[in-house]
Amino acid sequence: xxxxxxxxxxxxxxxxxxxxxxxLIKRExxxxxxxxxxxxxxxxxxxxxxxxxxxxxxISKRNNELHxxxxxxxxxxxxxxxxxSAIQSxxxxxxxxxxxxxxxxxxxxxxxxxFKTWKYSTINGKPYVVYxxxxxxxxxxxxxxxxxxxxxxxxxxxxxYRPIMRENLRDFVDEMLAFDWxxxxxxxxxxxxxxxxxxxxxxxxxxxxxxxxxxxxxxxFQKLTKKRIWLNKLSEALVWVQKTLSSxxxxxxxxxxxxxxxxxxxxxxxxxxxxxxxxxTALVMFYFLHYKKIFIDDEEFVFTMDDFLxxxxxxEVDDSNPWKVKEQTIF
Length: 331
Description:
The protein is built from 13 helices and 14 strands. The protein has 331 residues and is an alpha/beta fold. It folds into two domains: 3-104, no CATH class; 112-330, Nucleotidyltransferase, domain 5, CATH 3.30.420.10.
């Protein structure tokens, strides 16, 4: 999955696309981009560059279009092949350093600047909360033990974060049951909602109430693309924000150490992990609301606000099961 950038995006949004491309040009001992492209397409229309065992850059010529995909920053640039001189111009500026890139913003900064203008203070005119939980790892969801959670409330120009501990879960579930309107999560309909409800000693009726008001970004992505993806992969590709821990095993160690020693430093690190997941979820949603399109494997998926709201809460049996084999998973 890629962010599709225009030439203007390459100069206004902070990125390393041109430095990554120029490193390949130097690797091939070419002086400029035009020489490099001649070399690339000398024997075919597709070239892959690797860093160790992973693809780092893909260059293709298709239907008289030049496709450049930076696999590190997950940026794709597509332009008419006879307009490739625009890339040459950016390379020249980068090498000569005549144009210093002041004022470039990351995608995260762009989205947060918009948030500060109250653009995302509501969704479709209704309030919302972004929520994420941490649990014990078990095969049976009904046996999963709620550990802690974080919630984010838009508050003017700020994001107000609130931790929810086990002793506060029942009160918070009551708050969500009464909350009007949206609760934003990632994979909540299949995971967070039932575990939160069951651990608060409620049952199926309360799960249905939460499901009805949920905006599930996992379900939305799956409905839009017929593919499955996990939060870290989606956030890293779209907004360049990653989890604070690399695996569930790491946070399981943190929690176990906290329970063993009652050392607050382990708990704070665990809470930091959960809070960052909430931030990632919010930023991914802001990205969807800002761009209203994503690109995967050269396919563009465009959607409206109505599409976003419908698909993020659509539980039709035919294709809503997240474990269907026919759907591709993006890891």
